Amino acid sequence: MDAAIAKPVLVTGASGFLGWHVARVLIGRGYTVRALVRPGSRVRELAVETATGDLRDPPSLAAAVAGCELVFHVAADYRLWAKDPSELYRSNVEGTRNLLEAAERAGVRRVVYTSTVGTIGISAHGPELGDERTPVSLGDMAGDYKRSKFQAERVALDFARGGLDVVIVNPTAPIGDHDVKPTPTGRIVQDFLLGRMPAFIDTGLNVVDAGDVAEGHLLALERGRTGERYILGSENLTLAQILEGLARITGRKAPTVRLPYAVAYCAGICSTAWAEVTGAPPRVPMEAVRMARKKMWVSDAKARAELGWDPAPAETALERAVEWFGGPMAESGTRCPAA
User: Fold this and answer.
1) What is the pLDDT of residues 8-66, one digit of tens each?
2) 214-244 burial, b for 16+ CB within 10 Å, e for fewer?
3) Average confidence (pLDDT) over 189-218
4) Which of 284, 290, 260, 262 is closest to 272 using CA atoms?
5) Is the peptide bond before 182 cis (omega within 30 degrees of 0)?
6) Domain holding 29: CATH number?
7) Are 167 and 132 a contacting pair, CB within 8 Å?
8) Is the pLDDT of residue 2 over 70?
9) What is the number of other CB atoms lying within 10 angstroms of the CB of residue 315?
10) d(Cα 135, Cα 43) in Å, to the nearest integer?
11) Which value, to the nearest 10 degrees, does the dihedral of the CA atoms of residues 207, 182, 318, 119 take?
12) Selected residue with higher pLDDT from 270 and 146
């Protein structure tokens, strides 16, 4: 093994969706992966070292990062509703600060921080695509998840300005296999397969294969510039186009009824209000409805030019997700085998 990769690489979030793919790609390249996992969690199917800890517990992070030259901080509290929203800030903002402080003290050579396309500015007028230079502020963030990730990204940029070698990647809407929870994007595929999507709203996403995003993390490690952000995306699609793609892959019919935004807004209000009473996550989170008001369409030109980023078409991601969520599990209404 090359001396440059002889030491373990710390990956946070490897028990989740995107972090699992990052860990898999690293192992395939010959790295020894040390996965930060919370008590009771595990990393499925991959041969990794484990370090039990929590982003909110600095001593556990110091132990996890000890002896590592590289850190991939992929973990995040990705919920569009939480009964206690402060939990998102403790994990996403303070947890990022805790980990970067531990990395700095341990002399880590480079950190790749996984942000989100949600922190990218989207033009409210005209056809321009959002990119890393589009003006954006905290006030543009809809909901606690986006606000917490925006603040966490600013923490990472502060560390980069302070001398820690941090590169930031902004994945768009990853879709694919091993989406174990699933994520809100993966739920679109799951709901389609289960026949739970009789209608849709006029919104749009940039869809990208999760495996490609993991490869993009390594490109950022190898070629990214310190303190820079790189959008990792593939195709800008409307929700209707995504559902049509799923229909082509599965042979099922795509919904044809488009809901007015006002109807979705009312559903979000009712569903979220009921969640506040029961404590169970809402079927239609109000935060998701607000996010859907804008088409999250962006350009990945910077990553293509500087990193050599060359993702597969969105249909590849949809095919892998269908295979993962499909079969007997879809028919029975249960989750995928690894859930």
Assistant:
1) 999 999 999 999 999 999 999 999 999 999 998 999 999 999 999 999 999 999 999 99
2) bbbbbbbbeebeebbbbbbbbbbbbbbbbbe
3) 94
4) 284
5) yes
6) 3.40.50.720
7) no
8) no
9) 18
10) 38
11) 0
12) 146
CA distances from 110 to 25, 302, 305 (A): 17, 20, 21
| Number of domains forming the structure of the chain | 1
> Both tokens of residue 303?
């990553």
CB 298 within 8 A of CB 130: yes
In a domain, 253, yes or no: no
User: DSSP assignment, residue 16?
Assistant: S
Place of tokens 């699992």: 20
Q: 95 is written with which tokens?
A: 């947890």
Q: Where are the beta strands (DSSP E) in the chain?
A: 9-12, 33-37, 49-52, 70-73, 110-114, 166-171, 173-175, 199-200, 204-209, 229-232, 235-238, 257-258
Residue 265 falls inside a structural domain: no
Q: Are 22 and 43 in contact (CB under 8 A)?
A: no
- The boundaries of the domain holding residue 162 are 3-181+207-235+296-312
The pLDDT tens digits of the residues spanning 290-318 come to 777 788 999 999 999 999 999 999 999 99
pTM, two decimal places: 0.91
